[in-house]
Structures are given as structure tokens and as C-alpha cells.
């Protein structure tokens, strides 16, 4: 009987321990490009992750970004030049808003 109680107590503690911790939730990176038809893709680069998404009507949102610091690169169409923004911080479960990136010719 003592072994059964000890086993149940151990199981209860292990179960409580599994539910006590919350895992990391991925965030996202969003922004706009001006002119709206001047770019094709947005890239997000970190030390351990590379993500990309198509730009639609000048807007983009890169989802499933792990928490960390990213460099966002906008892949432009000619005659525009590619643009980049460093130091974009994604926090646990939040959306990082890059704002508007203006493309130069």
C-alpha cells in the first residue's frame, strides 16, 4: 500500500511539473514597402533562422518567427534597389512592426 501511495504521489508531481512550464510562442514580423509594387519578397534572417514571404500590395507579414533579433531584407524589382533593416526584435508571441521601408532607385 505504501508503494502505491508513493507511486501516485510521484506521478502527480511529475504531471504537475509538465504543465508548470510554458513553451516559447513564435511571433511575426510585419511592415509595408513604398512604392507598393516595387518589391517581390521580404526575408527575415537571424543567427538560426531564415524566413521569407511574398509582398502583396506593398504589405507583408512573416509568421512563425522565433523570438530573437532579425535582419529584414526587401527584395526589390528593377529599377529599385534592395533594402534592409537591422535589429528587428521579435518577442515571445508578439508581432514586430518594421513600419514603412522606402525603396530607392
Characteristics:
105 residues; alpha+beta; 4-stranded antiparallel β-sheet; 3-stranded mixed β-sheet; 1 helix; 50% strand; rod-shaped
Q: What do you see in this structure?
A:
Helix content is 18%, strand content 50%. It is of the alpha+beta class and 105 residues long. The protein has a four-stranded antiparallel β-sheet, with no helix packed on it. A three-stranded mixed β-sheet has the order 4-1-7, with no helix packed on it.
Oligomer: single chain
General shape:
rod-shaped
Radius of gyration: 22 Å
Number of extended strands: 7
Q: Strand order across the biggest sheet? A: 3-2-5-6
User: What percent of residues are in strands?
Assistant: over 45%
Quick check: average pLDDT?
89
Order of helical and strand elements: HEEEEEEE
Largest sheet: 4 strands, antiparallel
In helices, the fraction of residues equals 10-25%
Q: So how many helices?
A: 1
- End-to-end Cα distance, whole Å, is 80 Å
Which runs of at least 5 residues are low in confidence (pLDDT < 50)? Answer: none
* Helix-and-strand structural type: alpha+beta
Amino acid at each position: 500500500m505504501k508503494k502505491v501511495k508513493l507511486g501516485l504521489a510521484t506521478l502527480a508531481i511529475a504531471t504537475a511539473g509538465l504543465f508548470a512550464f510554458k513553451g516559447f510562442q513564435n511571433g511575426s514580423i510585419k511592415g509595408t514597402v513604398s512604392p507598393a509594387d516595387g518589391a517581390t519578397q521580404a526575408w527575415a534572417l537571424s543567427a538560426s533562422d531564415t524566413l521569407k514571404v511574398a509582398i502583396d500590395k506593398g504589405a507583408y507579414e512573416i509568421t512563425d518567427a522565433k523570438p530573437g533579433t532579425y535582419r529584414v531584407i526587401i527584395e526589390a524589382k528593377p529599377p529599385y534597389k534592395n533594402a534592409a533593416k537591422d535589429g528587428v526584435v521579435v518577442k515571445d508571441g508578439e508581432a514586430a512592426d518594421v513600419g514603412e521601408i522606402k525603396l530607392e532607385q
